[in-house]
């Protein structure tokens, strides 16, 4: 099994990936770990694309089955051939943004409001994430994901709405059993 889970920020890809990893006992990889350099201010320094791609490929080559969460759209065409199942998660904007604010507060506390640098990053992230449903937005958006998913060489399931992790897990396991 080689599963790719993607969607907008805070749609639940990481959470579902971790749950699937535990349920199926196969390794889980989050693209954020490869995309971002470790830095004093997390999620601010992008890793060189060639290096991040190679790092993820090296990890995946160590195992026959894996789960990868996060968007690989801008990582290269070869990623469309790497999976046996793709899972697209969709949540309405209001729910995603509420989750995003909650996650940022959990990560950084009141710094997202009180620290000028952290506040600037927070506001930029919220602005970027809020544009996901705008197909004309030049950044990551639903149209880009749908186009990318139309080109993958594996079955794609779409899970919509604010359902529980257990319900999402059930949807994915049923899709695995069908294929």
What topology emerges from the helices and strands here?
Blueprint: E1 2-7, H1 13-24, E2 28-30, H2 31-35, H3 49-60, E3 66-69, E4 85-90, H4 93-108, H5 111-114, H6 116-130, H7 142-150, E5 156-160, H8 165-178
Parallel strand pairs: 1-3, 1-4, 2-3, 4-5
Give short descriptive properties of this protein.
single chain, about 180 residues, alpha/beta, 5-stranded parallel β-sheet, 5 strands, about 50% helix
Quick recap of the structure?
The protein has 179 residues and is α/β, with parallel strands linked by helices.
Describe the 3D structure.
With 179 residues, the chain is α/β, with parallel strands linked by helices. The chain has 8 helices and 5 strands. It has a 5-stranded parallel beta sheet with strand order 2-3-1-4-5, sandwiched between helices. Helix 1 (13-24) crosses helix 8 and helix 4 runs antiparallel to helix 6 (116-130). The chain is globular, with a radius of gyration of 16 Å. The model has no long low-confidence stretch (mean pLDDT 95).
């Amino acid at each position: 099994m080689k599963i790719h889970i993607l969607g907008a920020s805070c749609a639940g890809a990481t959470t579902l990936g971790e749950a699937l990893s535990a349920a199926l006992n196969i390794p889980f990889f989050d693209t954020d770990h490869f995309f971002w350099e470790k830095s004093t201010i997390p999620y601010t320094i992008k890793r060189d694309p060639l290096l991040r791609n190679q790092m993820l490929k090296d990890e995946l080559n160590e195992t026959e089955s894996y789960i990868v969460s996060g968007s690989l759209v801008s990582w290269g065409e070869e990623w469309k051939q790497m999976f046996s199942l793709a899972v697209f998660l969709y949540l309405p904007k209001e729910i995603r943004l509420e989750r995003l604010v909650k996650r940022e507060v959990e990560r950084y506390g009141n710094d997202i409001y009180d620290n000028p640098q952290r506040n600037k990053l927070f506001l930029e992230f919220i602005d970027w994430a809020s544009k996901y449903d705008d197909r004309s937005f030049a950044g990551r958006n639903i149209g880009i994901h749908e186009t990318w998913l139309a080109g993958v060489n594996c079955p794609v399931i779409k899970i919509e709405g604010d359902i529980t992790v257990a319900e999402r897990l059930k949807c994915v396991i049923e899709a695995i059993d069908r294929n």
